[in-house]
Amino acid sequence: MMLFTEVRGLPVLSADGDRRLGTVTSLTVDAPAGLVSHLRFRAGRLRGETVLPWEAVRSLGTGAVRVGPVTPPDAVPPGHDLLGRRVLTEAGVERGTVLDVAFDPGSGRVLALFTTRGELSAGRMTGLGDHALVVRTD
Question: Whole-prediction pTM value?
Fold first, then answer.
């Protein structure tokens, strides 16, 4: 298990570890599927963000992320970061703000959401947009 806050800021290396490609800026989540779908990183402050499908991640540890061929996907999903995102139920009831997310680094499966109002099961996620993360009502 890893936390999103542990991954943000990690160096991104080529699969063989010979080249530093950038620094992790965020992880994109497919909320209804409950999976990390993409890794986002920057090579420098003035450079654009590179987006890779989660399948390109070869290994992920506390020291670095190693990625396979750096080929951006044809369709890049919106970069809605879960960290700091407002949480609303389907009925529009405020459920706090996301502080961190636990996930399985091998599969990308989201395990739990830690919010300002406590822990939420990842299975409750129904959508993620510009405004908020939407979760099923209790």
Answer: 0.90
